[in-house]
Specification:
The protein is α+β, with helices and mostly antiparallel strands and 255 residues long. It has a domain of 177 residues: Jelly Rolls (Sandwich). 34% of the residues lie in helices and 28% in strands. Strand 8 and strand 9 form a beta hairpin. Helix 4 runs antiparallel to helix 5 and helix 5 runs antiparallel to helix 6.
């Protein structure tokens, strides 16, 4: 763990750190971009929540927890990297409540990996409580609401167009805590992904994004009977392709 922490610290020193933009970003953009660190810290504490609220407005209605004032500040700091078929974000997010903004169809799933803090999500008849170590998937096209404590975690936005072959499986897996050997394998990979993307070229980011998408598609299994499918299934095929490519990335990595 100490080695992983040192690697993360070295990687962070190489990244461009910039104030969190006030303007919303295009969540559908799939142009590979090198990792950067966005933060609300450059703003005065009373401004920080307003910056975050404006940034998230097209997608989420966010609010402060009961009893919390904007004058107390609102620290958000995260690494983000567009890898083409997935967008990786990883960092710290202040406690807040949220609900999906009306009329915001985006054709995207979000995959969460909780490292510290807790998250509660509610959509339809499903409710989940995610504690450290949990991984779960939600659809940004479903109405949902929730809240987080002060929270550290990893988030991947997954465009539906990149996962058309497993869309049914993803929809069935939404709003449940994911578990099993393949999910643990995926968690191990995602926990190191952010340090591996530092220094990659645009072409490498796109290739790594494709491999990551294939690995996610292979590992997310909503029902136990999925594990009993023949080796020729799409999940097995995608997983093997992703495994081989990721192994080559690690072998050639300067880290």
């Amino acid at each position: 763990m100490q080695q992983d922490d040192n690697t993360s610290a070295r990687a962070a020193k190489l990244l461009e750190q910039v104030p969190l933009p006030r303007a919303p970003r295009d969540i559908r953009d799939r142009t590979p971009t090198p990792p950067r660190i966005f933060s609300t810290r450059p703003y005065a504490p009373p401004e920080q929540f307003d910056v975050w609220k404006a940034r998230m407005a097209p997608l989420l209605d966010v609010a402060l927890p009961e009893g919390r004032s904007p004058t107390q500040g609102f620290e958000v700091e995260y690494l983000t990297c567009n890898m083409g078929e997935v967008v990786l974000s990883s960092g710290h997010f202040a406690a807040q409540t949220f609900a999906r903004a009306p009329g915001a169809p985006v054709d995207i799933w979000s995959l969460f990996r909780v490292r510290s803090g807790e998250a509660w999500f509610e959509t339809g008849e499903r409710k989940i409580h995610a504690e450290p170590g949990a991984m779960f998937l939600i659809s940004l096209d479903d109405d949902f609401r929730g809240r987080i404590t002060d929270y550290d975690g990893l988030l991947l936005n997954l465009p539906r167009s990149a996962f058309a072959g497993v869309a049914e499986q993803f929809d069935r897996a939404c709003n449940t805590i994911l578990s099993g050997n393949l999910i643990e394998l995926l968690a191990d990979y995602l926990d190191t992904l952010e340090t591996r993307v530092v220094g990659m070229s645009s072409d490498e980011l796109q290739r790594a994004g494709r491999a990551t998408a294939e690995m996610i598609a292979a590992c997310i299994q909503p029902l136990p009977d999925r594990l009993q499918q023949p080796r020729g299934s799409i999940e097995s095929m995608l997983f093997e392709r992703a495994r081989l490519y990721i192994a080559s990335l690690y072998r050639d990595s300067p880290w």
